[in-house]
């Protein structure tokens, strides 16, 4: 499935990570001593009820938030702030309305000081990859929600990150567009060979895209659980194994009866 | 793969009309609205001409349009009004230019730094709410009756709409866009140049158009109060000398000046903000 693990980069190690927010003067812990290793080129989904800290974890990985304790290592080096080896895709496309699709996709490279000609060429490559070649000169207001999100995805890919962070990227899309985009993301992940960390509240999406699913609990004292998704790719949502996996994951949230003999690991 | 047949291209075509078709449609709409837009103005002018020439109103104080146009043409041909136009443009132009040079950078700076904005906002509101004409005597007291006091009072009145609009524009920049830029490692300066500044341009233009209107308003008032040259002075002077067609001529010139200034700003705004929809 993956090529050579040893030469590739984008390995994430999370050590004793804790973070709490102040709520009415009281500290509200959202992440407690989290330990996690994300392999290079792995696709990890993070699911959990709202308020469990999944978005906080992603924002810490993006460098947008600071943990209270613990550290994050990227390729064995402590992570510092925002770095070019990481790119984030938000729930909203967050496009600059005064730039064309091409301008928006090239934005990351422009900001990082890549020569304009090279930035444009690379942007065009990723615009093609997300299927928007005919819309290079369109402005964001002319795009549909799904198209705008594709632009956001292309913008993140254009800086060629080792780690792609996705914060409920398809959460605002309609059901059909969402299915198409899940397939696109799966294809992009395979082609680009990036480490992918995906925050989602859609369990099916997690199973469709992830090698492992991290289930973050909300209750105090409960531990985060890791579930392996041992399904062949490309995955088929109606396969028996897929449905069984979905059922097992739903059981994690008390939404279905646990499946006998499930090999849920930590 | 279940949904492969729906591929990205299909979805895109289905959801978005071709840009050229959208453009054509827009052109047709603009053409159609032109008549309904300017029909009333046309009717007003016709009513004016007819009522004056048929004697419905006293033509001595409400002359027909053709009389006004002839008087205006004569005055322009003789060079009588040309000097007035020049001096009026100079006064308004210098004041407006100064307001742009001071107001936009100051607004961009103030809008970025919350503490500065919070500290200065009350005094800005106080200055804004105090009629510039009310403090014109103070300017005359300090700067005399010459050009300086006129330019100063126009500058004063012009500065605040522009400054406040710019501050508002900067403050309202979507923080999510700023965060997005920061995730790509953009520095403070880059975020300002690539996100904050372009995002503020529409608000700045609102301020520019308000300021241009204010500049002309104050120009006329200042010229009526203490000047012996300029279009505002000519309106008053023509009335004193009962040259009513010339008075209306000067008023029309002022209206044309205002319309031209606004049209120029709208054109510039269209050029700079192709991405947003601009109201006229």
Largest sheet of chain A: 6 strands, mixed
| SS field, number of helical segments of chain A | 7
**SSE run of chain A:** EEEHEEEHHHEHEHEEH
Question: What is the global morphology of chain A?
Answer: globular
In total, the number of strands of chain A is 10
CATH structural fold name of the largest domain in chain B? MetI-like fold
Oligomer: heterodimer
What is the second-level CATH architecture of the largest domain in chain B?
A: Orthogonal Bundle
Mean residue pLDDT of chain B: 87
The helicity of chain B comes to over 70%
Rg of chain A:
19 Å
What separation lies between the terminal Cα atoms of chain B? 50 Å
Q: Averaged pLDDT of chain A, please?
A: 88
In total, the number of domains of chain B comes to 2
Assigned CATH superfamily of the domain at 1-80 and 195-266 in chain A: P-loop containing nucleotide triphosphate hydrolases
**What is the H level of CATH, i.e. the homologous superfamily of the largest domain in chain B?**
MetI-like
Radius of gyration of chain B: 25 Å
What's this entry about, in short?
The complex is a heterodimer of chains A (266) and B (280). Chain A has 7 helices and 10 strands.
Q: Could you walk me through the main structural features you see in this protein, from its secondary elements to its overall organization?
A:
The complex is a heterodimer of chains A (266) and B (280). Chain A is of the alpha/beta class. In chain A, 32% of the residues lie in helices and 23% in strands. Chain A is built from seven helices and ten strands. Chain A has helices at residues 54-62, 101-111, 116-129, 145-158, 175-192, 203-209, 240-252, and strands spanning 12-23, 26-38, 43-47, 69-74, 77-78, 86-89, 163-167, 195-199, 212-215, 225-228. In chain A, strands 6-7-8-3-9-10 form a six-stranded mixed sheet, with helices on both faces. In chain A, strand 7 (163-167), helix 5 and strand 8 (195-199) form a beta-alpha-beta unit. In chain A, helix 6 packs across helix 7 (240-252). The radius of gyration of chain A is 19 Å and the shape is globular. Mean pLDDT of chain A is 88; it is low at 1-6. The relative contact order of chain B is 0.10. With 280 residues, chain B is mainly α. Chain B has two domains: 20-59; 63-272, MetI-like (MetI-like fold, Orthogonal Bundle). Chain B has helices at residues 8-15, 19-53, 65-77, 82-112, 114-129, 136-143, 147-171, 175-183, 188-226, 231-240, 244-272. Chain A binds chain B through residues 62-64, 82-84, 86-88, 90, 92, 94, 96-99, 107-108, 110-112, 130-132, 134-135, 137-144, 146-147, 150, 159, 176-177, 179-180, 183-184, 234, 236-238, and chain B through 1-4, 6-9, 11-12, 15-16, 19, 22, 176-177, 179-186, 190, 194-195, 198-199, 201, 273-276.
